[in-house]
Write a structure and sequence with these properties.
The protein is of the alpha+beta class. The protein has five helices and four strands; from the N terminus they run αββββαααα. Strands 1-2-3-4 form a four-stranded antiparallel β-sheet. The relative contact order is 0.11.
């Protein structure tokens, strides 16, 4: 929403924190990561509609017709079930409402991205991306919410998802 120009944020291995003054785009970085990983609820991304994610312009800069995020992930250790040493995810959203997902520049489905990240602890709703508001939710949340977090960390979410899909 707030990044009109091509912007690169490089994250190093280990625990990362994004800090800065209010209004500098910290939460937009987290939202961008969640979005490229498949987040479907605009409210989770602090928007009323998905097209609110596209830069709307300012007095000195015109609005854009597309929102695009590419996330490059080092896969040298083979954590993701892919033969590639680097996995590149891209999600695009056009003002027309059309959108697309790509894995290593190949058109993909949301389901492909979800399967790629299942049981890795990394995904749009995984425990690896925690924003400040989520900490309170974890502490004061229901036992079902904490259980979902523990299931993801323990690696059983993939099996529960497969079971549910099979039952449907």
């Amino acid at each position: 929403k707030s990044f009109a120009s091509h912007t690169i944020a490089e994250f190093q291995p280990g625990v990362m924190s994004v800090v800065g003054p209010n209004g500098c785009g910290k939460t937009n970085i987290v939202d961008a990561i969640r979005w490229v990983l498949g987040e479907q609820r605009s409210s989770t991304l602090r928007a009323e509609r998905m097209d609110d994610l596209i830069f709307n312009g300012t007095k000195g800069r015109r609005s854009l017709g597309i929102a695009e995020v590419t996330l490059a992930i080092d896969n040298d250790k083979g954590i993701l079930p892919s033969e590639f040493g680097e996995v590149e995810l891209t999600r695009r959203l056009y003002r027309s409402g059309d959108s697309e997902y790509l894995i290593n520049r190949t058109t993909s489905r949301l389901r492909d991205i979800q399967e790629l990240f299942s049981d890795t602890g990394f995904g749009h709703n995984a425990y690896s991306i925690i924003e400040l508001a989520m900490v309170e939710g974890i502490i004061s949340g229901s036992s079902e919410q904490r259980r979902a977090l523990i299931d993801e960390a323990a690696g059983v979410t993939k099996f529960k998802s497969a079971k549910s899909s099979t039952e449907k």
